[in-house]
Specification:
This protein is of the alpha/beta class. The protein has a single domain (27-175), classed as Beta-carbonic Anhydrase, Chain A, CATH 3.40.1050.10. Helices cover 39% and strands 18% of the residues. The chain has 8 helices and 5 strands; from the N terminus they run ααβαβαβααααββ. Strands 2-1-3-4-5 form a 5-stranded mixed sheet, with helices on one face. It is globular. The protein starts with a helix and ends with a strand.
């Protein structure tokens, strides 16, 4: 995608502004525990449409919907500031999907592509990177659920659920 295409996409904001009715101030958020949905950045995994979500849940998207250090950082921040510090994080849903790019390509492929762009002295560093590649969707969800539950900086008793989103049928199924 080129910069020109991004500028063209940004023009969609003109239509949004015409029907925008304003937003609540951060200080006016309800005093309730927050909900976070951690999912993949793949456009086929659009959880707002998939679950027909109302305003409210925080959506974290990254490659594979993985519980990376940055995803955990965002969860820690929300847990600390929700309702001006009067509430916390109550639940997290981890949603991975079928036919994910991280299943189809994995770490080795990503490393080789990165090396094509990076100076040679960085190749060893690239080899040590984990980009979250996986082969088993259900196992990857369970792994990320365990990572979130084990985070010492998130609330004790945090509920963490996992779901598989089928990219071809649109259906989500809970992982137990």
């Amino acid at each position: 995608m080129s910069a020109a295409m991004l500028r063209e996409l940004a023009k969609g904001n003109d239509e949004h502004v015409k029907s925008f009715s304003g937003s609540i101030k951060f200080s006016d958020f309800p005093k309730q525990d927050a909900v976070i949905i951690l999912t993949c950045m793949d456009p086929r995994s659009n959880i707002i449409d998939t679950w027909n979500l109302p305003f409210g849940p925080a959506i974290l998207r990254n490659a594979g919907g993985r519980a990376t250090p940055d995803a955990l950082r965002s969860m820690q921040v929300l847990a600390s500031i929700m309702a001006n510090g009067q509430s916390t994080l109550g639940a997290v849903a981890v949603i991975h999907h079928t036919d994910c790019g991280l299943v189809n390509f994995g770490n080795d492929f990503i490393h080789e592509r990165m090396k094509m762009n990076a100076p040679e002295h960085l190749h060893k560093q690239i080899d040590g990177m984990d980009h979250g590649g996986f082969t088993d969707v259900e196992a990857s969800i369970k792994e990320d659920m365990a990572i979130i539950k084990a985070d010492s900086f998130l609330p004790k008793g945090l509920e963490v659920l996992g779901f598989i989103h089928d990219s071809f049928t649109g259906k989500t199924t809970e992982v137990v």
